[in-house]
Specification:
Layout (H helix, E strand, L loop, with lengths): L1 H11 L1 H10 L12 H11 L4 H15 L5 H6 L2 H7 L3 H16 L5 H5 L3 H8 L7 H11 L11 H10 L8 H7 L7 H16 L18 H19 L12 H4 L27
């Protein structure tokens, strides 16, 4: 299977193929078959924390509960106890919401989760407070081993693409998603090799791009909204073309500003605009 994936990606994209040849074997590591509740609770604990600090907090929770607590047991824990373990107020709210939605069946068990497609899993799990698309994509990729996941919002993936393809700046997530369509149905492996591209760059072993890449142009939502607003203004202008605009009546008193008593009426000269050009060396 791994050979088939590498052959497909290398044929679809020579630049990625060079990265694959330099990175070596595709390996996602040991697969942990744990309940979604456990995986997401760990993800919440690790948010915005170093792995060592998050591990210490989880260790205190495991020691207090005698193992990983079940959803009902977590709901029964007092907030003050969770605070003493090291969880912030926002993470406590997220953990309690995760536990409540697991009890309610919104977050299913692993067997049910395996029967759902990727987008259905993302839609259900992102209903939990503090769980975003990226967190679910990591679960899909590493826990469920789904083959066609492309986490375009991941900093490492975007940075790896920038380095591997010789770009000046990070690719926009939507542009990267459009480009990555050629890697389907093995975009999970492509993401893994983009992470490895960062490691190869640090080691000075990243191959030179085989060709210059041009990312697909993606129209930004702001531009779409601006275009709609402009079209609306033009429509209103055409509708009111037969009517004459009403002129505002202005008096001489309102047209000429009144000078304050005792104030100088002589206009001061405006300062010259600052130059943006660099100063010449003497």
């Amino acid at each position: 299977m791994t050979r088939k994936i590498i052959e497909h990606l290398s044929a679809a994209d020579p630049t990625l193929g060079a990265v694959i040849a330099a990175a070596g074997a595709f390996d996602l590591g040991v697969r942990e078959e744990r309940p979604p509740f456990h995986a997401l609770a760990r993800a919440i604990a690790h948010q915005q924390l170093h792995a060592k600090a998050a591990g210490a907090i989880l260790g205190r929770m495991l020691a207090h509960c005698g193992g990983f607590p079940e959803p009902a047991a977590l709901l029964a824990l007092a907030d003050t106890r969770l605070r003493a373990m090291g969880f912030s107020a926002s993470k406590i709210l997220a953990l309690k919401d995760l536990a409540a939605k697991t009890v309610a069946g919104v977050v299913p068990d692993r067997a049910t989760l395996l029967e759902l497609d990727d987008e259905a899993i993302i839609a259900r799990l992102t209903e939990v407070r503090g769980i975003g698309r990226w967190t679910v994509e990591m679960l899909l990729l590493f826990d469920l081993r789904r083959p066609d996941v492309m986490p375009v919002d991941d900093f490492g993936v975007r940075n790896g693409f920038k380095l591997a393809y010789g770009l000046r700046s990070m690719p926009a997530p939507r542009a990267l998603a459009a480009y990555a369509a050629r890697w389907a149905p093995y975009r999970s492996a492509a993401a893994w090799f983009l992470w490895r591209a960062v490691d190869l760059h640090k080691a000075g072993k990243l191959p030179v791009p085989t060709e210059k890449v041009r990312l697909p142009r993606v129209v930004k939502k702001r531009r779409k909204r601006a275009a709609k607003a402009s079209a609306g203004r033009k429509t209103r202008t055409r509708t009111g073309a037969g009517t004459k605009p009403r002129a505002r009546a202005t008096s001489a008193a309102s047209a000429t500003p009144r000078a304050r008593s005792g104030a100088r009426t002589r206009a001061r000269p405006r300062p010259a605009p600052r130059s943006r050009a660099p100063a010449k060396k003497k």
